[in-house]
Amino acid sequence: MAKDYDAPPGVFDLLPSDPKEPWRSSYLWSHSESIMRNVAKNFGFAEIRTPIFEKTELFSRSVGEETDIVSKEMYSFVDRGGRNLSLRPEGTAPVIRAVVEHHLQHAEPLQKLFYIGPMFRYERMQAGRYRQFHQFGAEALGVRSPEQDVEMIDMAMTLFASLGLKNLSLQISSLGGKKTREAFREALKNHLKGSFDALSETSRRRFETNPLRILDSKDPQDQLALKGCPSILDLLEDDSKEHFIRVQELLNKLQIPYTINKNIVRGLDYYNDTVFEIISGELGSQNSVGGGGRYDTMIEELGGKSSPAIGFAAGIERIFQVLISQNSTLPKAPAPLLYLIPLGERAKLECFELMAFLRKQSLPVDMDLSSKKLGKAMQRANQINASFVAVVGDQELETGKIALKEMETGKGAEVPLKSLPRILEILSKQKETETIIEELLRPFDTAEEAKFFINKIGGSVEETTHLIESLKKAVAQMKEIS
Ligand code: AMP
Predict the structure, then answer these.
(1) Burial 341-354 (b: 16+ CB within 10 A, else e)
(2) CB of 312 within 8 A of CB of 290?
(3) pLDDT tens-digit series, residues 446-460
(4) How many Cβ atoms sit within 10 Å of the Cβ of residue 480?
(5) Does ligand 1 lie within 6 Å of residue 134's CB atom?
(6) Which DSSP helix (H) or strand (E) runs through 235?
């Protein structure tokens, strides 16, 4: 196809496997999304899915007219009905819009919601920055306590750890209340006034519109001008100061390491008090894998009942890129347990029927439908990473036995066709069963724990011992079979 139809810059396809860019393999995504959903579930968050586009006004109201996102990065358009719409550049405003629109807080003021999905920003192209990128995000509404902030941070850190990320650093700060931010804005402008002409063009523009964002700048000239600038943390009011101290105490309690970075401002206007960012040493300038903060005024601003809230968002592409740069083992894409190679028309029909039957037992089975030569069919089995292969010809049909060959070891075993479903089922569960049994055989820490377990499986000590013995035998047998 002509180059003209290639995907536009800044977007990408997820392919079943992408050896050049392994983070774009679709299985890595679906596998990781299920881990994220699981972490969210363990922390008591329920999923919310909002539309890809919203009224433009939603973002200008909540994210802020002066932010880069709203002023330069939105994909905005007028639809055929004359409405001003935008592809969502972030997830918080749509979630709050949905909560307000569906009166979720009337029934239950405490709402813990998470989302996974694409966001759209017309950003300058560079490594780690895309125009369609994906975020996992979470919002907890209704509680203004430091515990709520630390629960959110703990979930973020658990999420990254569950996905296999290492060596991340958590940075926290506080933006205080409105008064603090106003006072800080003035103090910062006063500090920078003298070196205004030396500031980068972007920072000169931000000086009037959004001076706090100058703290974000990586420009060396800006950094020089910022040297010795006042700290927002010195301007916190008592309430915010106490809140921030308590957040630190709770992080210590949960043994979550952090550093205080008074320069965290976050790109969006709506934050107050606790803000945080999670940074990876492995990524270049785009080194943030996620961040969040408290936004206690946004819900009211969007027409809802006044309610405190805190949110967090992580960039999924960045998570995968860190994983890869840390040489982590990526999850293997699922492959057929058995690949059937029929020789001849009769065998093809029999295999076709057998495959349909096995699939109905939820077993991942595939076969050669194209009557390839044996060598080519074996190649295919290899290519799709089948665990076992069985060549079925007239002789196999006569004797009712087939030879199961394990691809990795080349070892084989003759198996009666009749027993195939049961054997495959055992083979498919082997790993899982082994982990369950290992878990069962782990010594308990206390007698109470052991008693609880025995009661739970509804037996006496003798029955439980018997059960465990049979499980041990089953594992030994399974090992023999494979
Ligand atoms: P933000 O909504 O700007 O706070 O971003 C939260 C996270 O989303 C960041 O830490 C990044 O990991 C990710 N992110 C933001 N913008 C992009 C982008 N253009 N491309 C890829 N990831 C992004």
Answers:
(1) bbbeeebbebbeeb
(2) yes
(3) 777 777 777 776 667
(4) 8
(5) no
(6) none
